[in-house]
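Box 4.2: Ligand-aware structure prediction
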Amino acid sequence: MTADPAPAAPATPDGITALFRDTYGTEPEGVWAAPGRVNLIGEHTDYNDGFVMPFALPHTTLVAAARRNDRILAVRSADQPGPVVELALEGIGPGRARPAGVPAWTAYPAGVAWALREAGHPIGGASLVVRSTVPVGAGLSSSAALEVGTALALDGLHGLGLTGPGLARAGQRAENAYVGVPSGIMDQMASACCTAGHVLHLDTRALTFRQVPFDMAAAGLRLLVVDTRVQHSLADSGYAERRASCEAGAEALGVPALRDIPAGSLEEALGRLSDPVLRRRVRHVVTENARVAEAAALLREGRPHALGPVLTAGHASLRDDFEVSCPELDLVVATATAAGALGARMTGGGFGGSAVVLVEAGAAERVGKAVTEAAAAAGHPVPRTFTTTPSPGARRLR
Ligand code: ADP
Ligand code: MG
């Protein structure tokens, strides 16, 4: 069987509507959008019940969808080769072998449909077409955009009345139990709950959040996202291993999660751990939660320039204590700060992916150029760099 090429479709409501029509021969009932995200600060804290501060990117995953009455979930992605894949709703469940010819990416929408049914939502069959502008595998959460976009479309079609956290939980359940990636809740909450012009100051235990204004233009600032275009093979095993270390640390310290160690008790807690690796892992999580609180205070006080050193300290902690950075990310951060950036850090799970760089508007071009040149000189892939600003979260477009 030769794979069909990915269908050409502009990433616009009209483009995806046309592709839906070509694919299914009917009109979609709606078009929904869910964004990717960058995390400003608060890394590897979400699975420790801690605090994070992401914002939504302008890059989104569009989902055009319509109900069908045969209890089939039909999915097609304009970003992947291949024809429509039809899955019987009753046949979707974790641990069942993927039938031959069913591409791996379909686990994301199938997992969401399964998770919604598991949560007691009466969803029926649906036809979906997806198309994304979120870079895939760059640590900017194309996976959460696909999950939340699917959940929002199914919510809209079947009138489920889900809230942002409900959409996010379905996405996380799909990713954890169905796709098999043990991610925390940050990415899905960011995609589901962010609003334009704000960062999401999220308590991942309570799933409560505050929208904190972050108007970089008014402050004469820019945020660069630097996608290193590398993803090291350690990304999956390293993530699971760090998660396990954090759980071991919490158990050794007799707390439900590392979130329960306040910064003021860190030294005393570290004194109770004999394993130097575990001590470093715990120190990262506790100090990172404190950095999120500090960043939130700085934004509230209208001092966004002062975020720079907090970001850079966060990177040092991820590099030295949590050990999830890599030479390509370290070079971006070192070069950006040496070239006059206010601060920089890796963002996302690490072992590759993207970094964020906070700069004065006037320095953005110079810093971006320095980062590109340094990567080339080191023989790294040439990074993809763009300026970004907090954008809307998941929403219905039509
Ligand atoms: P990230 O979330 O950082 O982009 P992940 O590895 O978590 O990286 O998720 C990427 C995977 O999500 C892809 O390999 C693919 O399976 C799926 N995916 C994301 N966006 C799309 C899309 N538009 N169409 C099909 N699959 C997608
Ligand atoms: Mg992902």
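In the box above, the bound molecule is magnesium ion. The chain has a mean pLDDT of 96.
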